[in-house]
Design brief:
The chain is mostly helical. It is built from three helices and no strands. The radius of gyration is 34 Å and the shape is rod-shaped.
């Protein structure tokens, strides 16, 4: 016995044309997921670029502060006026202030150097985190392509 084909109903024709069958829905779902992952990767790469720019700006500012602090160290070593050491008594009193000023200036240099290192570490951690997120999304994208 020969099977008689039924004509497709209007709804079936529209679904077929719109590719909204089960296969079409699955393709649409994965297409959307690929699109979202691609968008995430793009945005994360933008975040990475922004982060690099912020790091450059922050380090430039800290390096300028370091240069100024190093100048203050030199000034602290050379800031001796005749009036400060006019007598032995004055020189003895001034020596205490002299070394305190040097200590403060050198401490500031050390503090800024530590801040530079911490800033580099902080940005390296952030970069690593973003790169891991990118790698994870790329891995997922490769699984659904």
């Amino acid at each position: 016995m020969t099977e008689v084909k039924k004509p497709m109903g209007i709804v079936a024709k529209i679904l077929s044309l719109l590719n909204i069958t089960e296969e079409g829905r699955i393709d649409k779902f994965f297409g959307k997921q690929r699109s979202l992952l691609t968008k995430d990767i793009k945005n994360l790469n933008k975040n990475l670029d922004t982060l690099k720019n912020q790091e450059v700006d922050d380090l430039e500012e800290l390096n300028e502060q370091l240069e100024d602090a190093e100048v203050r160290v030199e000034e602290a070593y050379t800031s001796v006026a005749i009036k400060d050491i006019a007598t032995n008594e004055a020189a003895s009193k001034f020596a205490i202030v002299y070394w305190e000023n040097i200590e403060k200036a050198e401490s500031e240099v050390s503090r800024i150097k530590e801040q530079i290192e911490k800033t580099k570490e902080r940005y390296a951690e952030r970069r690593k985190d973003i790169q891991e997120q990118i790698a994870e999304r790329e891995r997922r994208l490769s699984k659904i392509q």
